[in-house]
Amino acid sequence: MLVVEDESALADVLEQYLKDEGFGVLRAADGPSAVELHAKHRPDLILLDLNLPGFPGTEVLRRVRAERDVPIIMLTGRTNEVDRVVGLELGADDYVGKPYSPREVVARAKTVLRRSERREAPHHGGERRVGAVSIDPVAHEVRVDGKPVTLTPTQFRILEVLAEHVGQTLTRDQLLQRVSIDGDVYDRTLDRHIANLRARIEKDPANPRYIVTVFGIGYKMVEPA
Ligand code: CA
């Protein structure tokens, strides 16, 4: 990770804490070298002081973000809220106000890294969200309001296909084609699977908000109002 901090005593302490936690640490003490080090080493996280020689942290943030979506935590010494707001608007993931405890910075760094690992999953097939329902095709996990729900593989496939086409009606045939592996889902069982799926993800399965029936045609998944 890249620590951008011009007060070397602060940077020393942070570096030590981070190294003790097993992080690799690069350091920059001004804006231009922060941008340069980022371009060269592509760190997985940047801890970014705002008040820097060369150009300010907000400018570092802007230039780095123009290149890539690396997680950034701002270390802001000013009491002025404006810096925090500007930083968050520019896309910082979090901020820690000075004087900060290195322990807190390390804790935030871990949280942001965990979050960004999840955020990167979409490159490999991607977590999908529809309202309070989130579907992780890699882990084969479905959560409703953050709570895991257990689905059969067929229910999972149906949900996945519907969620890929939010707002679009899929005919029964389209659904069967996309869901069925080796023809293991039949026309007559599709409604049963849908009913079971609703029972698991809908608050009131009789009045579904996510998976609605389009009479005579098929089903569609909608983003609840
Ligand atoms: Ca500073």
Write a structural description.
The chain is of the alpha/beta class. The protein folds into two domains: 119 residues, Rossmann fold, CATH 3.40.50.2300; 94 residues, Winged helix-like DNA-binding domain superfamily/Winged helix DNA-binding domain (Arc Repressor Mutant, subunit A). The protein is 44% helix and 19% strand. It contains eight helices and twelve strands. The strands form three sheets. It has a five-stranded parallel beta sheet, with helices on both faces. Strands 6-7-8-9 form a four-stranded antiparallel beta sheet, with helices on one face. A hairpin with a 2-residue loop joins strand 6 and strand 7. Helix 2 runs parallel beside helix 3. It is elongated and about 70 Å long. The model has no long low-confidence stretch (mean pLDDT 86). Calcium ion binds next to loops.
Give the SSE layout.
Elements: E1 2-4, H1 8-20, E2 26-28, H2 31-41, E3 46-49, H3 57-67, E4 72-76, H4 81-90, E5 94-97, H5 102-120, E6 128-130, E7 133-136, E8 141-144, E9 147-149, H6 153-164, E10 170-171, H7 172-179, H8 187-201, E11 211-214, E12 218-221
Parallel strand pairs: 1-2, 1-3, 3-4, 4-5
Antiparallel strand pairs: 6-7, 7-8, 8-9, 10-12, 11-12
Helix pairs in contact: 1-5, 2-3, 3-4, 6-8
The protein binds calcium ion (CA).
Calcium ion is lined by residues 6-7, 49, 51-52, 77.
